[in-house]
Amino acid sequence: MKNIFKITLVALTMLLLANCNRSNSNKSTLTGLSFNDPKNGNYIRGNSFDGQDPPLGMVGVEGGSFTMGQVQDDVMFDWNTTPKQIHVRSFYMDEAEVSNSEYFLYVQYMKDVFPPSEEKYKHIYKSVLPDTLVWRKSLGNTDILSENYLRHPAYADYPVVGVSWLQANEYCKWRTNAVNLKTLIDKGHIKNIFEIDSVSNFFDTGVFLTDASQLFEGDSTIYKRGVGRTVRKRGEARPERDDFQGRKISSADGILAQRFRLPTEAEWEFAAKANIENREYNNIRGRKKYAWDGKYTRAKGKRNRGDQLANFKQGPGNYSGLSGWSSDGADIPNKIKSYPPNGFGLYDMSGNVAEWVADVYRPIIDAKANDFNYFRGNIFTKKMIDKEGNVVIAASGEGAQISYDTLPNGKIVPKQLPNTIKYIPITRDDTSLRRNFTIADNSNIGDGDLNSSRFYEDDADQAKSRPSMYNSPKAPTREIDPLTGREILVNDAKNRSTLISNNTRVYKGGGWSDREYWLDPAQRRYLPEYMATNFIGFRCVSDKVGPMKTGKRSARNPSR
To answer: Which residues neighbour 451 within 8 Å (Cβ) at sequence distance 6 or greater?
Structure first.
């Protein structure tokens, strides 16, 4: 009887403490004002944050310090992998590369939202299609791959290729919107728009947070409920079940996912190296040459001893070994997750396909300028505001024209998708008396801008007439052929001495057609952002908010 009394007393005490904590969390501890209370101003405070769940298909990568650019070989003599100590923040990363089926879902979705049968949308659909002709060889019989690799179910789980950096970047933006739309539907904030034929499936997270009335052609009945409760005045009728109640959702509520994006070069290399495999306490034992532990590309276990741990070209004309005893199991990109993961649980960080990262390429990683979450390519923007003080939505309303751009390879892409928020570069007024940044486009900072050139004493007008340190072809111009009368593209024929520009992006890791040398995560290569190949794919990352740790602290390497 005494034990029952004690247990009851403890349970009541814990319940009382829990209620006290809950009540305190809804009231300012410094002013006494209430949070999330419609009777007292409805001031917002997010609910208690118990931790961020990894997004679908992703694993947590706990940040820390590592030596970036530490390679064991530099047979190309590029001298662009000088070791430097850098700290990387925690983030979430896709377990494997984006597959053909996942990218094809994006293609179908875009075709549904922006039907190419409509004249104003025809270039949008074409702009998201991968370049399947990357498989063709002048002296090779490879048309079967051009015709089948993207869409045939046999290759559904193979990594998508033929995707440029620009296309990969747009996929990440779409994935953010798709995930947030599904979350709002699942939580009952929005009706299932896929079941409503009269409503477009288009959704944009930025527009939803800024002015939700701009979505779904202004149909407010799509929104079922907001956050919190609605206080009814005396005499008001009770709202219907599907009527909007509560307040509008904001980013402070923590309901929406963090944006998806391409990883920075530092993040990708940190995740690929996975130094937790050879960590002991706070020290690194030895050096890793590949994404896995050890200095060889073949497995040592009894079950699969001698098999290759990645998909790569093993020699001239040797993509998979002999018939009947394939050493890596594939002569082109292999199905994702076909090889063991690294210490973070990430697949194919060495081999299969190389991967785009977010950075603008420069031969130098300037760790002295910044050794915290390094990234080159920042373009700081702000929302465009009209004269009435409203946020400007691109190509919204009937008769609105979509602006397109012609890339150097002749492809036409939208400058911005319709019905999304317009952003403009920050101005001098925004950077006045700042110490952390001074201009909008920081791609050239310290390596290509005026201050880093020998003309650093020039003023702005003189600098425009000087040759650029990193020069690249300009977009072709459209002219009329005098013989045929047809419109043709005329490329820039100016001679240049470099392929590096602010539109040149880094890609990391070795692909199925690369030799073993490129499997080292620290190796770097680059390609113009509008080009695509049959050996470059991509995967997405998402930022981790809150504590940096993704698990319990462990004193020693668990494998030892």
So the answer is: none
